Amino acid sequence: MSGSGGPALARRTRVLLEQALELYRDSARATTWLRRHLARLDDPLRLAVLGPQSCGKSTLVNALAGERVAPIEVAGWQPPAWYRAAPEARAVGYPRSAPPFELAVRRAEQEVWLDGEAAPGPVDRVELDWPNRALRELTLVDTPGLDRAEAAPVVEGVSTEADAVLFLLPNPAQADLGFLRATRQHPIARAAPVHALAVLSRADELGGGRVDALISARKVARRHRREGETGLLCQDVVAVAGLPAAAGRTLREPEFAALAELARVPKAELEPYLLSADRLAGPEFPAPVDAGTRAGLLERFGLFGVRLASTLLRREAGSQAELAARLVARSGLDELRESVGRYLTGRRPVLKARAALIALEVVLRMEPRPGSAALAAELERVVAGAHEFRELRALAELRGGRVTLPDELRDDALRLLGDEGQAPAERLGMADAEAAEDGVLRQAAAVALRRWQQHAENPALGAAARRTAHTLVRTCEGLL
Ligand SMILES: Nc1nc2c(ncn2[C@@H]2O[C@H](COP(=O)(O)OP(=O)(O)O)[C@@H](O)[C@H]2O)c(=O)[nH]1
Ligand SMILES: [Mg+2]
Known about the structure:
The structure is a single chain. Helices cover about 55% and strands about 10% of the residues. By secondary structure, it is of the alpha/beta class. A ten-stranded mixed beta sheet has the order 5-4-3-6-2-7-1-8-9-10, sandwiched between helices. The protein is globular, with a radius of gyration of 25 Å. It starts with 6 loop residues before the first helix and ends with a helix. The structure holds guanosine-5'-diphosphate (GDP) and magnesium ion. Magnesium ion (MG) binds near residues 58 and 142.
């Protein structure tokens, strides 16, 4: 069923890679590369977290993992680190010009420690196998700052190894989108800019640090989704305060007890002490919580997180579990996870195929030989014909508000694009029993096709909406 999800593109990609393996069977380098990318198709989605120094990458990795796993340090620097679900903990370092070696790994005080003694020098990356359910669908890659000169080549490597990226922008107004633009120089990447989500990170600061900071940060995110370059390069723009999110997901009983103690102080009395780190840690603090504990809260939650937690405890969250859940929701993490599900893990075969096609293009370009031009032409045809990419872009444009349709058309369009499930019956909005009857699905698809053919020719809809309608015509043809 072409055009109705991942399978068609995924199958074609696999065939292309196998043809390439045949063509390059006498080149050890190409074969190793191709085999690796072929094997990758069956792995969980690899998501790299990228952005400038100190923008909150490692903190966000922890928030997504629901555990403090980042950062890790080897030989005095924090290399790109892969976090991959596995039954047993294990860490392997990859130096640039020496064989990989195993690092002793242990967990202490709820953090991960690597023993870098065995490291012969700086490593290009560390791969960490780690028992964690959240990682089963998503391998996370924490990276050094994009703006660090020594990190540039390493981070570039990460971007060919990752299937998707979270691009962190602590300062959306002065965002440096150079990296995202550069990844679009690649012809396949340009044809399919469907692998990135922008995160307005440290969103509490973006929103001025008040308890309602996330509300204004969300407005900024919405604007970037609708207009400007960030939303062109990314499928979604989401505001997240990673620090309180990570603290919420890993909230411990003593922390809860201390925060509850704070929240018992009358609001007017407490508030002046939550305005600066100095006052929070200072000797006049009006709650019976010792200075060391307060310093710990500050480090784990940030000033905004402490303020938010005490407000939540006063208003709505009575128990530790409630506080944890509300911190996570208020920090924007739930929205980010939803977006990751909708655009990334939910479209894993498409993104896997995209990454593999990019890898194949590299081989064909680097090692030209008789037969490679024909394969390159076939690759180009597969990319140009990949309706899955266009559907994903159309979905993002509609949801983000770059393209508008009247409400009932919009709902129909989102459903057909697979937003409520990618099986044909789900796209056509039919119950299973109904869809099981002979010919019913076909008929529904034919009706949808005629409808969208008309919309595609309707001048009242405007050019962008008509383009979306054309995409839906192809989707309906695929369903037929
Ligand atoms: N206010 C605030 N600070 C944050 C947030 N996330 C991270 N930070 C702080 O920013 C600093 C850098 O965070 P880190 O995750 O190490 O950034 P990285 O260098 O991008 O990995 C640390 O001091 C964090 O506590 C956030 O959401 N809000
Ligand atoms: Mg970091």
